[in-house]
Design a protein that fits this description.
Bound molecules: zinc ion
CATH architecture: Orthogonal Bundle
Largest sheet: 2 strands, antiparallel
Helix content: 55-70%
Radius of gyration: 22 Å
Shape: globular
CATH superfamily: Jann2411-like domain
Strand content: 5-15%
CATH topology: Jann2411-like fold
Length: 225
C-alpha cells in the first residue's frame, strides 16, 4: 500500500532525494512521529478512546506529509494503534542515559524487531538505499520501526553518542534528536527550554525570599556554639 505512494513521491523528489532522505532527516521524522503518537501522558500502547486514535491519525499523517510523503496519505486508525506500539519500543533508545545504553537498546530492537539489512531502489524509482523491513510495501508500523532503527543506528555510529533524548521538562513527553556539535541538548524545543528557565528562575526567587525571611530568625540560634 505504501509502495505506490512512495514511488510517486520519489519521482517528484529525485533532485533533493539525498537531502530529504538523509539519515538526520529520517531520524528527525522518527522523533516527530514518536511525539505525534505518544499523546500527553499515556504510557500504555493502547489509546484510551476512538477520538484519541482519530486525533493521532491526523497528527501522524501531518508529520508524514511534512517529511515528504505525497498525497493521499492513507493511514487507518489500526495502523496508528500499531505504530504507537512501535513508538513505545523506540522511546527506550531515547531514554538511554549514555551511548552504551543507547547501543544496547538499539541492539535489542535490531535483534527482535527488524529483518536483515537489504537494499532497495523501489523498482528503480529511487536511489539504492538500505531498509530493514521485510519488503517494500510492509505495513506502516513495520516501516516506522525499522526505518527508525536504521537511522538511529547510523547516527549513533557516526557521532558515538546517544542519537537523541527525552525532553527534560517534567511537563513534556517529547523526544528529540541530538544534532550538531555544542553543549548537550536537554529540551525538545525552545518553548520547553524557555518555560523551564522561567520556572527555575521563579523557584530561585522563592528560595531567596524564604532564605531572607528565615535568615533573620536563625541569627539567634547561631549564638549557641
Ligand atoms: Zn519538551
Amino acid at each position: 500500500m505504501r509502495y505506490t505512494r512512495y514511488i510517486r513521491s520519489m519521482a517528484a523528489l529525485t533532485d533533493d532525494w539525498s537531502t530529504r532522505h538523509s539519515v538526520l532527516a529520517n531520524a528527525r521524522r522518527t522523533a516527530a512521529l514518536i511525539n505525534a503518537l505518544s499523546g500527553t501522558d499515556d504510557r500504555e500502547p493502547q489509546p484510551k478512546s476512538a477520538a484519541e486514535v482519530e486525533a493521532a491519525t491526523v497528527a501522524v499523517a501531518e508529520v508524514l506529509r511534512e517529511y515528504g510523503e505525497s498525497e493521499p496519505v492513507e493511514l487507518a486508525p489500526d495502523d496508528v494503534v500499531r505504530m504507537r506500539v512501535a513508538a513505545l519500543l523506540l522511546r527506550e533508545v531515547f531514554a538511554a542515559e549514555d551511548v552504551d545504553a543507547a547501543a544496547a537498546a538499539l541492539n535489542r530492537l535490531l535483534a527482535e524487531q527488524t529483518g536483515p539489512l537489504r537494499l532497495t531502489s523501489h523498482g528503480g524509482s529511487a536511489p539504492w538505499h538500505p531498509h530493514l523491513d521485510s519488503h517494500d510495501d510492509a505495513p506502516w508500523d513495520e516501516w516506522f520501526l525499522t526505518s527508525s532503527c536504521l537511522a538511529l543506528t547510523v547516527l549513533l555510529w557516526d557521532h558515538q553518542r546517544p542519537p537523541g533524548g527525552l525532553c527534560a521538562s517534567p511537563a513534556c513527553r517529547n523526544v528529540y534528536i541530538t544534532s550538531g556539535p555544542g553543549p548537550a541538548r536537554r529540551y525538545c524545543s525552545r518553548r520547553c527550554a524557555t518555560r523551564e528557565r522561567v520556572a527555575a528562575h521563579r523557584r530561585g526567587q522563592r528560595a531567596t525570599d524564604t532564605k531572607s525571611h528565615s535568615g533573620s530568625g536563625s541569627g539567634s540560634g547561631s549564638g549557641n556554639s
